[in-house]
Design a protein that fits this description.
The chain contains 15 helices and no strands.
Amino acid sequence: MIAPDTARSAYVAAFVVGVYGVLMAGLAPLLLGTLVAEGHLTAAQLGLAATAELVTMGLAAGAAGFLTERIAPRMLALASVMAIIVLDVATASATGGTVILLRALAGAPSGMLVGIVTAMIVRSAQPARQAGMYLTIQTVAQLACAAVISGLVAQHHGAATGFFAIAALGVPVAIVAMGTPVRLAPFAANHGMGLPDIRGWLALAAAFCFFAGILGIWIYLEPLAHQAGLSSGTGGLAVVLALAGQVAGGILGAATVQRWPCRFVLIGATAALIVAAAIFATLPGRTAFLATAIGFGMLWAFASPYFTRLLIDVDPTHRAAMLGSAALLLGCATGPSVAALSVSDGDVRGCLTLGAGLLIVTGGIVLLLPLLRRVGSPAFAVQSKDRS
């Protein structure tokens, strides 16, 4: 848990900076896409910039768990927010390879903010539920910011103003960052900070494959709609409805994650997502496509907090859970990159085969975990039983 004298306001502040840290991950298609339209970036460079930012975010999120016990989270949060502001302003006037470099650099402070809120979540009384709330809040924030920037800023004033808007939002967030904790309680009680055991790594691999598979499909949702003979407006509507489904799924996941059986939910949701991929592969009509998009987004968000619970169930020291955000972000970076190798200009359905394959691996790992003997002390097993 957090330090005993940490106020609830400090917990809220950590959530705010954590949401700010992940905003650009949701806004990258809009802002970087506008840079492409303006001729400041090529389509290939867009993919490299987005991937580079997610990779450094994932690595920094993993490292943050170790840094928060050595450096005051408040100092890390404030420095990270200020770094994001500077790098976003610099990106506004950059072109080509400079954009890729700046976005790769920006991923580090963004990941640090995600890592700080992760460190708070894994120390809370109900970490899986808190993780579900965080994922839902960040989705709503990304949706709201995308609507504002798309409707009022980027379309009329260019991508530069969009980056300035995100940088300006960082000013009040920097003030809020001053309310994050000065210190956290020692991690994992008597077990100390360290790396998870083999079961923890396998659970992290399951989370990685899940999000890689999901993002490998998600990034091609609009091209899939186009290949199905649907209008560009329908493709855009599918994205919006899928995001709305994510919000609903995230709320449901946060509400049920402490009560419903973890492995049953993950296997069921994974199987249903594979069915959704199969439906997309048939290139359905408008109604079926939109309904599948809603279900896809809902199932994705609904299952997400259960991965936090899975990580804690298999590794009660919370070491694996501390790396959960890193696995998520690295999976999100890997999925679209690998999916790009499986599609062509005439047929993008290869992303569905790839995504379904990764989801099958996820389900296989979840099924395998109970069969593996725990590596660690018997006390860990007792703790895990108590949490189940």
